[in-house]
């Protein structure tokens, strides 16, 4: 299944898109937009928006859907992993890029860094603190890894008070072994639950990719599980393999099916749902908050 349906066509990049990409590149930063081959990159870059990816561009896990550079099995980290450091002046460079782009709502995500004692939680907290220090009016949404279930690491990020704390479930429980072999479905739900236990007013967010071979009832179950841990915001999008060597797409889910899932999610009590073939976890993040009257 390789030919894309019409609803997944991408826009041609214009001058505004190129200016944003250049601003990020000059700052020596990475974006998940570029690394994950996001289908909305031209749309977001044209608006001067980007989702910044911290802690470098090399991941210690081997998720079968992901296009990030990988270092092999994270259960046996090699010497290269152990010796790697956090990129120099990363928080300051993000602040400068945010200033150049004029952003008021900033999305920060990361690679997974199981080689770091706290999974990189300190760096998330440092970025949030420096952004707030540069402009108290800036709102920060973070998309964090699972920190291997460490409550201490998660607590560091929660204490830094991001406006939204996201962690993606990515797929249904049955497919974890094939697609996210080093992750754990219950651990991911547990992280989102922990956020609410420590700060019931903090907004939480998660995302599922569809078209990986999941059944409808499995999607419904995942949505119920997310609401069961108090998840506030949900995004649903179509999985697209970055290369022929990645996990194959099993189905191009039609727009009407995305609408059905959205209706079910709303009925379950999610505060906001964005569901569609080209939706990604950080796409339209600021607009979702505005629609929730958090502006």
Oligomer: single chain
What's the CATH topology name? TIM Barrel
The ordered string of helix (H) and strand (E) elements is HEHHEEEHHEHEHEHHEHEHEH
Q: Stretches where pLDDT falls below 50 for ≥5 residues?
A: 72-83
Percent strand equals: 5-15%
What is the residue-mean pLDDT, rounded to a whole number?
A: 87
Number of helices, counting only DSSP H or I runs of 4 residues or more:
12
**What is the makeup of the main sheet?**
8 strands, mixed
Overall geometry:
globular
Give the structural class: alpha/beta
**What is the second-level CATH architecture?**
Alpha-Beta Barrel
> Nearest-angstrom radius of gyration?
18 Å
Helix content: 25-40%
Strand line-up in the sheet with most strands: 1-2-5-6-7-8-9-10
Count of discrete domains: 1
Quote the distance from N terminus to C terminus. 42 Å
Structure description:
The chain is of the alpha/beta class and 295 residues long. The chain has a single domain, classed as Alpha-Beta Barrel (TIM Barrel). The chain contains 12 helices and 10 strands. Strand 6 (139-143), helix 7 and strand 7 form a beta-alpha-beta unit. Helix 5 (90-101) packs across helix 6 (121-134), helix 7 packs across helix 9 and helix 10 (216-228) packs parallel to helix 11. The model is unreliable at 72-83 (pLDDT under 50).
